[in-house]
Amino acid sequence: MKTRSLTCIGCPMGCPLKVELNNGKVLKVTGNSCPIGIEYAKKECTNPKRIVTSSVFVEEGEVDILPVKTKEDIPKNKIFDCIKSLKGIVVKAPVEIGDIIVKDVLGTGVDIIATRSIHKK
Ligand code: SF4
Fold first, then answer.
1. No. of helices (H) and no. of strands (E), the chain
2. Less crowded by CB within 10 Å, the N or C end of the chain?
3. Alpha carbon nearest to ligand 1 atom 3, residue
4. How far away, in angstroms, is 18 Cα from ligand 1 center?
5. Ligand 1 centroid vs 50 CA: distance in angstroms?
6. Which residues line ligand 1 (CB under 6 A)?
7. What is the pTM of this model?
8. DSSP letter (8 states) at residue 98
9. Where does 15-116 have alpha helices with state H?
10. Pocket test residue of 5, 7, 19, 34 for ligand 1, highest count of atoms within 8 A of CB
11. Residue 74 CA: distances (Å) to CA of 43, 69, 94
12. Regions of the chain where pLDDT drops below 70
């Protein structure tokens, strides 16, 4: 049996979690103050995922950089490749918040979307 220590990222309380694992299976979670901590610990120990934030270049916009993010979590082991895949992407203004910048990034089924609007200059 293995024990892992995690900090729950479900809310600013950041509860310190202790997870008991056996062959990759979560047996027990302690330290959580609510059920979200249990779900977070299970996910983190079996299929860790994250929202990824980054930026791409903008042409003809009031600013040159557009902040973007994955619309949903993607597997943690794809974060680096996801950021790498955004290198060299240039979009043309205008851009609206929520516009899809990259569809189905790395075949994850998750889109990269704009997190702000940028008008034409
Ligand atoms: S276990 Fe619940 S209360 Fe504690 S950090 Fe996670 S979400 Fe917040």
1. 2, 10
2. N
3. 33
4. 13
5. 17
6. 8, 10-11, 13-15, 32-34, 36-37
7. 0.79
8. T
9. 35-46, 79-85
10. 34
11. 12, 11, 27
12. none
